[in-house]
Amino acid sequence: MPELPEVETVVRNYRPLLEGRTVAGFTTRWPKNCLPSAAAVRRGIVGRTILRVSRRAKYIVLALDNGAHQLIHLRMSGRFAWAADHEKVETPFVRAVWTFTDGHALWFDDARKFGKIVHAPDLAAATAHLGVEPLDRTFTAGRLATLLTRRARQLKPLLLDQSVIAGLGNIYVDEALHMAGLHPLTRSDRLTPAQISALCKSIRTVLRTSIRRNGTTFDWIYPSGQMQNYLKVYGRTGEPCRRCRTAITYLKVAQRGTHICPACQLTAPR
DNA sequence: CGCCATGTTAGAGG
DNA sequence: TCCTCTAACATGGC
User: Fold this and answer.
1) Which residues partner with A239 through β-bridges?
2) How many helices (H) and strands (E) does chain A have?
3) Residues A115, A95: contact at Cβ < 8 Å?
4) Are A215 and A227 in contact (CB under 8 A)?
5) Is A88 an annotated catalytic residue?
6) Rounded (5°) CA angle A79-A81-A82
């Protein structure tokens, strides 16, 4: 389910539910998801009060009252469910449950079991591998130019690399490249300053637009998003480009399904 | 059955 | 050292 806009939407929805609540218990039915271990995750959060809920890249960050943090990554199919006062909400693929001292509960449902729950005594260390936040004010055309030019990589996989830019995923990279008129196989060190500037602007616009629409909804995993109705290329193979009416084509780039308008995104590969 | 999937990472090979 | 590609994780939907 999650790229940056979807995770941001989850954070905004769950912030008022979680902040100020104290964890009474934590159980997991898939211990492999817990890092460094299920015991460490449980010990790290039971008895703690959640002070703040925020987001770093695609991680949901719970700031605890002892200075430690818990990070949750939804990966492909993770989602939260909320149970009011002692209510039973047995979702289909429950992998973990947090219970709170007032009887409420948070459920982590994750069909594919790729999601991660991480105990982080040191938040900075736990997130040190992550690159720049694309919606941060430090993400400028100049900064992007440095990131692109210091390497000679295919543009799309570079934008998906979380250690370079943190938060973009398959949908929004395709959307941003289309908006900027760039082919996903363009070499990262061969963009003109104007193209880099356009790409920077497109990334920020696409992400902000999606957050405004509560993210993209494809299936039961992530309800209530509206961005799927506004996508320009992702999932639109064979349909006409909204700009030039040329049929959207599908290709594989770095093993990921990729959607482009072959007329609007003509920049030379290699 | 075969192929697809909003993510990430380890390992092989050039 | 850097880059690219494959396989793997595990499961559901079409």
Assistant:
1) none
2) 7, 11
3) yes
4) yes
5) no
6) 150
How far is C-alpha A113 from the geometric centre of its chain's CA atoms?
A: 16
Reported as a pLDDT band with limits 50, 70 and 90, residue A221 is low
CA to C1' distance (Å), from A160 to B12: 22
pTM summary value: 0.97
Indicate whether A258 pLDDT > 70: yes
Question: Could you report the per-residue pLDDT of A25-60, keeping only the tens digit for each?
Answer: 999 999 999 999 999 999 999 999 999 999 999 999
Quick: pLDDT tens for A108-160: 999 999 999 999 999 999 999 999 999 999 999 999 999 999 999 999 999 99
Q: Which residue has the tokens 């990554």?
A: A73
End-to-end CA distance of chain A: 32
A40: helix, coil or strand?
helix
Strands annotated E in A178-255: 249-253
Q: Tokens 């992702």, residue?
A: A234
Question: Among the options A2, A5, A134, A184, which is catalytic?
Answer: A2
Number of residues written out for chain A: 270
Catalytic residue among A42, A48, A55, A58: A58
CA A134 to C1' B3 (Å) is 33
DSSP state of A256: E
d(CA A117, CA A112): 14
Length A226 CA → C13 C1' (Å): 21
DSSP A117-140: EEEESSHHHHTTT--B-TTSTT--
